[in-house]
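tool_call predict_complex ligand=magnesium ion
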Amino acid sequence: MALDDDIERVLWTDEQISKRVTELAGQITRDFSGESLSESSPVVVGVATGAFLFLADLVRKIKLPVTVDFIRAESYGSGTVSNGAPRISFDLKVGIQGKHVILVEDIVDTGNTLSCLIAHLESRGASSVSVCTLFDKPARRKCPDYFIVGYGLDFAELYRNLPYVGILKPEIYN
Ligand code: 5GP
Ligand code: MG
Ligand code: MG
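tool_result ok
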């Protein structure tokens, strides 16, 4: 049984993802190369686990000194529908007091996870929190309202290792 068998169709290929990641890294490099950053490198915070591939590809293309860390917020459990208020279940190792934080997310759906994380990072004294998300569901309708997997995104912790992003066949979760 091949991993691909459960995918209805591919939405973004690994080449398309890579091109977008390059653009985002370029934008971050431009946005954060100001003189105000001389004594403080931005902290790139990946939201585990979904952002792990995106974070790894992104930071290799950012042409600035950055610190890398992870945070984990849980709301989805193993289903495809959010199960209420997210909570932080794994916190940062590095201090972010007075630092610019770039929060790297795989996908924003309702925005609940993001609001929870931004409030948390601000309460830790971040001087700014910017968000870099690869996919955005309802907010700007860039991503159709399917349940998607691959390139870090899971269903029940599976499919994260697909190199592309595709729509999961509904019979897998129904
Ligand atoms: P939010 O709190 O914005 O509703 O949900 C964000 C989180 O839900 C994302 O970080 C991601 O883990 C998960 N999520 C939302 N939509 C999808 C989807 O289509 N596929 C996968 N695999 N996860 C999703
Ligand atoms: Mg996520
Ligand atoms: Mg998940």
